From TrEMBL:
<keyword id="KW-0520">NAD</keyword>
<feature type="domain" description="2Fe-2S ferredoxin-type">
    <location>
        <begin position="2"/>
        <end position="78"/>
    </location>
</feature>
<dbReference type="Pfam" id="PF10588">
    <property type="entry name" value="NADH-G_4Fe-4S_3"/>
</dbReference>
<feature type="domain" description="4Fe-4S Mo/W bis-MGD-type">
    <location>
        <begin position="215"/>
        <end position="271"/>
    </location>
</feature>
<dbReference type="InterPro" id="IPR050123">
    <property type="entry name" value="Prok_molybdopt-oxidoreductase"/>
</dbReference>
<comment type="function">
    <text>NDH-1 shuttles electrons from NADH, via FMN and iron-sulfur (Fe-S) centers, to quinones in the respiratory chain. Couples the redox reaction to proton translocation (for every two electrons transferred, four hydrogen ions are translocated across the cytoplasmic membrane), and thus conserves the redox energy in a proton gradient.</text>
</comment>
<keyword id="KW-0001">2Fe-2S</keyword>
<dbReference type="InterPro" id="IPR001041">
    <property type="entry name" value="2Fe-2S_ferredoxin-type"/>
</dbReference>
<keyword id="KW-0479">Metal-binding</keyword>
<comment type="similarity">
    <text>Belongs to the complex I 75 kDa subunit family.</text>
</comment>
<keyword id="KW-0004">4Fe-4S</keyword>
<dbReference type="Pfam" id="PF13510">
    <property type="entry name" value="Fer2_4"/>
</dbReference>
<keyword id="KW-0874">Quinone</keyword>
<feature type="domain" description="4Fe-4S His(Cys)3-ligated-type">
    <location>
        <begin position="78"/>
        <end position="117"/>
    </location>
</feature>
<dbReference type="InterPro" id="IPR000283">
    <property type="entry name" value="NADH_UbQ_OxRdtase_75kDa_su_CS"/>
</dbReference>
<protein>
    <recommendedName>
        <fullName>NADH-quinone oxidoreductase</fullName>
        <ecNumber>7.1.1.-</ecNumber>
    </recommendedName>
</protein>
<dbReference type="Pfam" id="PF22117">
    <property type="entry name" value="Fer4_Nqo3"/>
</dbReference>
Length: 682
C-alpha cells in the first residue's frame, strides 16, 4: 500500500493504482473524457491533469501510477491553466450543436466546459467538418462532434469483442469509424451511446424525441433476456421513450443488451387493450363482466383434470402465483411453464439456476459451454465471460454448432450428443483441463434441453459437473442459462405438471394461457381457450376470450433472473385502454368463478409468495456451494447424437414485444442473412 497526500488529505491506496484513482479515494473530482473505469487507459484527452510535487509540468492522472509519499494538487493555478488550455483545444472544432444535440443536458463536454473551461476562445478559424459514419440501425453518428477520446473503439474491442471501430488518418484529419462502412455486428452496440462523452454517438430511434428533463425516470428490470439487467425506464405522457441500464456490479455492471434497450417501441404496437369474446366464431369487443361471465359459463361444472394452464416466458411471479392458486381452486394440476419443451427438473433449485452467479464468472478458471450461444442468449453475461478470458486466458470448451463467434478464444469440442457423452464418461481430452482447474464451471443452454432427449442431456451435463471438480462445498459450477426473465420464477413456484402429466393433453377442454405463445395446432380441437396477455399473436387469435394484461413496464412486479436473484420492477407507465395488471385480472376472475383468491393488495400477494417459496422473502443472490451431488432424473447414457441447435435463431425478434417493434424488424433485416440476400450476393 502507498500513502498519498491529495490536497492535504492523506489516503492509503494499493500500489500500482493511478493518481486519478487516488484522488477519487480522497473525495476529489477529476474531470476526464477518455478515461473509463471499465476500459483500458488511453491517456489521450489530457483533461485529467493534476500537479505533483517536484514535477516540472502537469501530469495526466489517469495514466500516472502513484508512489509512496507522493503529494498531489488538484486545484492549483498550474492545474487550472492546464485544464482550461485542454478544454480550449477540445472546442476548436466542436460545433455549437447543443440546442439540437440529443446529448444536450447529459453531456460531459457541456458540464466540464462550464466547470473547468474559459468563457472565450482564441481560435477564429473555420471548424473542420467530418462525414457521418454508418454504424447500423441503432446508432446515429454526428462525427463532427467527436473529440477522439477512443472510448467507443476500446469498448468495441475489449468489452463487445468486435474490433470493428478504429481511427484513420492522423492529427486534425483523424476520424473514428468502421474501416469498411457497415453496421456494427454486436448485440451491445447501444452501450456506445452511454460511454460517448459528447454527442457524436446517439440513439437513432430516440433522435429529436425528447429532452432528458422532460422524462419521468423509473427504476425497473429488463425481462427480455434472463440476465436481469437493472434498467431505468424514461417515459413522457404515458409513453416509454427510452430505456437505459443502471449500474449493478453483481449483475450487468453498467452494460445492457440491444434488444432490451431498443425494442420499447413494440410496447405500443399490436397491443391488446380491451377484453374480447368469441361470438359465432368471431372475436368481438366485450366488457370485463361479459368476459368473466363467458369464462364462468364454460368452466362451470368442468372437472379439474379437464382444465389446463400455461404461462409464458415474460410472466411475473405475482401473476404466476395467482394463476396457480386459481387452478388449484378449480381442482387442476395441469400446469406448464416450459413452452419451449425444455426438459427441466424443478425438484431442486440448483438443477435450473446459474449457480455460480453472474459475478462468480470472474472467479472461474475453466469453462465448458454446452448447447448455448451465450453471445445471443445473454449478451451481457457473454461480455462478463470475455472479461474473464481476457484477464486470465482460461480454457473454454464449446459443445455446439461449429463456427460460433463467442467473441473470445475457445476450443470447439463437437456439435452434439457424442461429444457430451464422452465428456460425461470422462474420456474426452478437455476433461483434463476441467480437472486441473480449481474452480471450473459449466454453462448449459436451455435450448439444449428442448429436444426429445432433453432429460438425458440435463443428467449428462450434471454428471460432467460432478466428475470434474465443479460441485464443491464452497463452489457450485453447474449453471443453466435461461432465455427470458419470467422463466425461473415459474419454476420456483412449481408451475409444472405432476410426474407424467401435461397441461396440453387430448383430454383438456379448457386452457388458460398467461402470455404463453403456444402453437394453435397443439391445442385440442374444440377446447375453450382464455388468452391473457399484452400482445396479440397466434395464440390470441385462437382464443375464445381475451383478457388484456400489462407489459413489464406497466406494473409493479417481481422477477427472478437466471441466477435466481429476486428483483422488483416498478410501474413506469399505465397499461393502455382497459388493460390491467395480470394478478388483478386473475383475482377478479376468481371471484366470477366462485373461487375467490385470498388477497386484495400487492403486499398480500407478495406475502403469499414468500409463504409459498422463501426465496421471494428477500432479494439478491448469495454464492453457495453444492452439498448434494445427486443428479436430476434422466439417463446420461441416453443422449442422442443430434447436434445442438441455436435456441434463438433470430435474436432481434425473440419475444412478443420485440416482434412488434419496428426497430427490431429493421435490425433483423440488416443483421440476418436471408436466402434472397445470399442469392443476390452470389
Amino acid at each position: 500500500m502507498a500513502k498519498v497526500t491529495v490536497d492535504g488529505i492523506e489516503v492509503e491506496v494499493p500500489n500500482g493504482v493511478s493518481v486519478l484513482q487516488a484522488c477519487e479515494a480522497a473525495g476529489k473530482e477529476i474531470p476526464r473524457f477518455c478515461y473509463h473505469e471499465r476500459l483500458s487507459v488511453a491517456g489521450n484527452c489530457r483533461m485529467c491533469l493534476v500537479e505533483v510535487e517536484k514535477a516540472p509540468k502537469p501530469i495526466a492522472s489517469c495514466a500516472y501510477p502513484v508512489a509512496d509519499g507522493m503529494k498531489v494538487f488538484t486545484d492549483s493555478e498550474m492545474v487550472r491553466k492546464g485544464r482550461r488550455g485542454v478544454m480550449e483545444f477540445l472546442l476548436i472544432n466542436h460545433p455549437l450543436d447543443c440546442p439540437i444535440c440529443d446529448q444536450g443536458g447529459e453531456c460531459d463536454l457541456q458540464d466540464q466546459a462550464v466547470a473547468y473551461g474559459l468563457d472565450k476562445s482564441r481560435y477564429l478559424e473555420e471548424k473542420r467538418s467530418v462525414k457521418d459514419k454508418y454504424m447500423g440501425p441503432l446508432i446515429k453518428t454526428i462525427m463532427t462532434r467527436c473529440i477522439q477520446c477512443t472510448r467507443c473503439v476500446r469498448f468495441a474491442t475489449e468489452v463487445a469483442g468486435v474490433p470493428e471501430l478504429g481511427a484513420t488518418n492522423r492529427g486534425e484529419g483523424m476520424e473514428i469509424g468502421t474501416y469498411v462502412e457497415k453496421a456494427l455486428t454486436t448485440e451491445l452496440s447501444g452501450n456506445l451511446i452511454d460511454i460517448c462523452p459528447v454527442g457524436a454517438l446517439t440513439s437513432r430511434p430516440y433522435a429529436f424525441v425528447s429532452r432528458p428533463w422532460e422524462l419521468r425516470k423509473t427504476d425497473s428490470v429488463d425481462v427480455l433476456d434472463a440476465t436481469g439487467t437493472n434498467i431505468r425506464v424514461d417515459a413522457r405522457s404515458g409513453e416509454v421513450l427510452r430505456i437505459l441500464p443502471r449500474t449493478n456490479d453483481d449483475v450487468n455492471e453498467e452494460w445492457m443488451a440491444d434488444r432490451g434497450r431498443f425494442s420499447f417501441d413494440g410496447l405500443k404496437r399490436r397491443r391488446l387493450d380491451r377484453p374480447w369474446v368469441k361470438v359465432d366464431g368471431k372475436l368481438k369487443p366485450a366488457s370485463w363482466a361479459e368476459a368473466f361471465g363467458a369464462i364462468a359459463a364454460r368452466l362451470k361444472g368442468l372437472p379439474g383434470d379437464r382444465i389446463g394452464a400455461v404461462v409464458g416466458e415474460l410472466a411475473d411471479a405475482e401473476a404466476i402465483l395467482a394463476l396457480k392458486e386459481l387452478m388449484g381452486a378449480l381442482g387442476s394440476r395441469n400446469l406448464e411453464c416450459r413452452t419451449d419443451g425444455a426438459a427441466l427438473d424443478a425438484s431442486r433449485r440448483d438443477f435450473y439456476t446459474f449457480n455460480t452467479g453472474i459475478a462468480g464468472i470472474e472467479e472461474a478458471d475453466a469453462l465448458l459451454v454446452i448447447g448455448s450461444d451465450v453471445r445471443r442468449e445473454a449478451p451481457v453475461i457473454n461480455a462478463r465471460i470475455r472479461k474473464r478470458v481476457a484477464s486470465g486466458g482460461i480454457p473454454v470448451g464449446l459443445v455446439g454448432p461449429q463456427g460460433l463467434d463467442l467473441t473470445y478464444p475457445h476450443r470447439w469440442l463437437g456439435e452434439g450428443g457424442e461429444t457430451l457423452r464422452a465428456l460425461a464418461a470422462g474420456t474426452h481430452p478437455f476433461n483434463e483441463a476441467l480437472r486441473n482447474a480449481k474452480r471450473p464451471m459449466l454453462i448449459l443452454g436451455r435450448g439444449a434441453l428442448a429436444r426429445p432427449d432433453g432429460a438425458a442431456v440435463l443428467a449428462a451435463a450434471w454428471q460432467v459437473a460432478a466428475q470434474n471438480n465443479m460441485l464443491q462445498p464452497d463452489w457450485h459450477g453447474f449453471n443453466l442459462l435461461h432465455l427470458f426473465g419470467g422463466q425461473v420464477a415459474a419454476l420456483d413456484l412449481g408451475f409444472v405438471p405432476p410426474q407424467g402429466g401435461a397441461a396440453i393433453a387430448p383430454q383438456i377442454q379448457a386452457l388458460w394461457l398467461l402470455g404463453a405463445e403456444v402453437d394453435p395446432a397443439a391445442i385440442p380441437a374444440g377446447a375453450f381457450v382464455v388468452y391473457q396477455g399484452h400482445h396479440g399473436e397466434a395464440a390470441a387469435a385462437r382464443a375464445d376470450v381475451i383478457l388484456p394484461g400489462a407489459a413489464y413496464t406497466e406494473k409493479d412486479a417481481t422477477w427472478v433472473n437466471t441466477e435466481g436473484r429476486v428483483q422488483r420492477g416498478r410501474i413506469a407507465v399505465y397499461p393502455p385502454g382497459e388493460a390491467r395488471e395480470d394478478w388483478k385480472i386473475l383475482r377478479a376472475a376468481s371471484e366470477a368463478l366462485g373461487k375467490r383468491l385470498p388477497y386484495d393488495s400487492l403486499e398480500a400477494v407478495r406475502a403469499r409468495l414468500a409463504q409459498v417459496n422463501p426465496v421471494f422473502a428477500g432479494t439478491g443472490f448469495a454464492p453457495h456451494g453444492c452439498t448434494d451431488q445427486a443428479g436430476p432424473a434422466g439417463d446420461a447414457g441416453a443422449v442422442g447424437d443430434a447436434a445442438f441447435a441455436p435456441a434463438l435463431p433470430n435474436y432481434w425478434q425473440a419475444d412478443p414485444i420485440s416482434r412488434a417493434s419496428a426497430t427490431m424488424a429493421e435490425c433483423a433485416d440488416v443483421y440476418l442473412v436471408h436466402p434472397q440476400k445470399q442469392m443476390a450476393a452470389e
